[in-house]
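Tutorial, part two.
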Amino acid sequence: MERRNARRNQIQVDIEIAHPGARRCGGYAENISRSGVSIVLWDGELPARQRAVILNFKVWTGSETLYRKIYARVVRSEQEKIALEFAEHDFIAEAIIQDLMYYQNRERRAGARTPLECGETLAAVTAPAEQTV
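Running the prediction step on this input gives:
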């Protein structure tokens, strides 16, 4: 039985989570609705008692990265998955979700972009590999 009030949209968008007094953590948004988002963490973790966070979505447009910020509250936290509800249900939250869905539908890659390794530069990632004979 589905108990959710809002329809969920499947999505894969990089996200960074900022919270007071601790280092940032990152992952990707797995699904999103008008009222909240489900996130899979791949870097860091939220403190057990942390409830208020700032979500920074990294939206890849195909040519550049846009950043969208929204405040949220932790509803449920498991080891690598977090469910959050948006602190504000207004037109700004709706606009951010529309941006995410618009660019997700035009995404040229099959999955979320992985973070760069420590010390790796964007030039090293995008430069063509040398061929040896």
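Helices lie at 91-105, 122-126. In part three we will examine how such features are distributed along the chain.
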